[in-house]
From TrEMBL:
Ligase recorded as keyword: no
Domain of life: Bacteria
Organism: Variovorax soli
Keywords: Cell membrane, Membrane, Transmembrane, Transmembrane helix, Transport
Lineage of the organism: Bacteria, Pseudomonadati, Pseudomonadota, Betaproteobacteria, Burkholderiales
Subcellular location as annotated: Cell inner membrane
Topology class, membrane: Multi-pass membrane protein
Pfam families listed in its UniProt record: MatE (PF01554)
Protein name: MATE family efflux protein
Length: 466
């Protein structure tokens, strides 16, 4: 059976050059997707501090859905397809397209049910009250009513990325952002016969973006240009294929949940200092969330390369590619963090000028920004581990981060009562997160001692000898 050129590229081409080539459109698409949230935040910020605080309450939950659908379960989808193509199981790869859509529908409906019923209780426990709580509920009810659209969009994009094609999701997402830029303010503020919908308008614009994107991806998968085809004829749903997606996707979801719980806990702790502190922390921490899609730009092709190499039995190449990806992600994330720590106010003032918001946001960026490189390291290793189908240590690293962030933040408030010390605990949590995962993989946690170097030094000796 002949090998698809994209699959051969992942198995044979120079690693660094290939990752950069595949990452370029993917970073573009992730910047565009991150811009979706920033566009919304910018316009919602014009509605006042209460609206901005309400959006900050909902944002960790929206990002939980985004990261679960695109990075966790989406990573499981891309990993399953990459491994199937690497092992020359093309029929299974085709069938996985329909299985991915079924998984997306199930998770999307579950998110809608939970947040529509339990949203008020959740946001109140995170510190929302009065006008900020009502703004949060308005935004949340609209977004999560359309959760299925978010899940379908990200799952279909993951299907295409699993083949090594990063360009099509990039084009669709960038096109969607071009659509969103005029539609979001139009619905928020109104114009002519279109009424001003306020914060609800931002949520409706977001759902329209995902609807248009989903239709575009479906059209591509039905076209002759797609390597994999979406077909309902002759495809029987099979548990082994669901299991291939979910065994990576569900475990990855634990890691994703921990990331967002860390942010949610810090939001709740900041809530003790008022709506301005919530808005400041929520706005500043969006920069960390911005790093997620940027690192994903490298992580998605790395996932495809690692999964394809492992499917083809090339374990050593898979691990070498992983460390190349780590170097790229660390440099990028650290550069963003240092720039934010040195110049926090230009970022924060994009979204408002409330003094309490600016003070809290500045404290966060100066405390946590210099350690963003560790966040980039842990996150890119999470994507590589999805490709390898080995998620234990990324999950443990995220649990360690959550424990340090939550316990450290609580102790900081108990001992000092200063918000800045809560953010110091967040910085320490990022260091623990990156170091735990990197140390475990460098020690051989993916494949054990059988036929596999248990240290980076051993790997380098073997690569140099080959």
């Amino acid at each position: 059976m002949s090998t698809d050129p994209r699959t051969r590229l992942l198995l044979e081409a120079p690693i660094a050059r290939t990752l950069l080539r595949l990452a370029a459109p993917n970073v573009l698409v992730m910047i565009a997707q991150a811009a979706v949230g920033l566009i919304e935040t910018y316009f919602v910020g014009k509605l006042g501090t209460d609206a901005l605080a309400g959006m900050a309450l909902v944002f960790p939950i929206v990002m939980l859905m985004q990261m679960t659908s695109a990075g966790a379960v989406g990573g499981g989808i891309a990993s399953a397809i990459a491994r199937a193509l690497g092992a020359q199981r093309r029929a299974d790869a085709h069938a996985l397209v329909l299985h991915a859509m079924v998984v997306a529908l199930g998770f999307g409906l579950a998110f809608s049910a939970v947040l529509l019923v339990g949203g008020r209780t959740l946001y109140a426990r995170m510190g929302g009250e009065g006008a900020s709580l009502e703004a949060a509920l308005t935004y949340s009810h609209w977004v999560f009513a359309g959760a299925v659209l978010v899940w379908l969009f990200n799952s279909l994009a993951a299907v295409i990325r699993g083949t090594g094609n990063m360009a099509v999701p990039a084009k669709v997402t960038v096109g969607g952002v071009v659509f969103l830029v005029p539609v979001s303010p139009l619905l928020i503020f109104g114009w002519g016969p279109i009424p001003a919908l306020g914060i609800a308008g931002g949520a409706i614009a977001l759902l329209l973006y995902y609807l248009v994107g989903t239709l575009a991806l479906l059209a591509y998968l039905r076209s002759d240009a797609s390597y994999l085809k979406l077909s309902l004829a002759g495809v029987r749903l099979r548990w082994p294929l669901f299991r291939d997606i979910l065994r990576v996707g569900l475990i990855s979801s634990i890691a994703t949940l921990c990331v967002n719980l860390s942010i949610a806990v810090a939001t709740a702790l900041a809530g003790r200092f008022g709506a301005g502190a919530i808005a400041g922390y929520g706005t500043a921490s969006r920069l960390e969330y911005l790093l997620v899609p940027l690192v994903f730009g490298f992580g998605a092709p790395l996932l495809a390369m690692v999964g394809t190499c492992i499917g083809a039995g090339q374990r050593e190449r898979a691990l070498k590619a992983t460390w190349v990806g780590v170097a790229m992600a660390f440099v990028m994330a650290e550069a963003v963090g240092l720039a934010a720590a040195w110049f926090p106010r230009p970022w924060l003032m994009l979204f408002g000028n409330d003094p309490a918001m600016l003070e809290a946001g500045t404290q966060y960026l100066r405390a946590v920004g210099p350690f963003y490189g560790f966040f980039g390291t842990g996150l890119v290793l999470y994507f590589a581990s999805q490709g390898a189908g080995r998620l234990l240590w990324p999950v443990l690293g995220n649990l360690a981060r959550l424990a340090v962030a939550a316990l450290g933040g609580w102790l900081a408030l108990r001992w000092s009562g200063e918000l800045v010390h809560v953010f110091v605990a967040q910085a320490a949590a990022l260091v623990v997160y990156g170091a735990v995962i990197a140390g475990a993989i460098a020690g051989g946690s993916w494949f054990g001692p059988v036929g596999w170097p248990r240290s980076t030094a051993g790997l380098l000796r073997r690569v140099g000898a080959s």
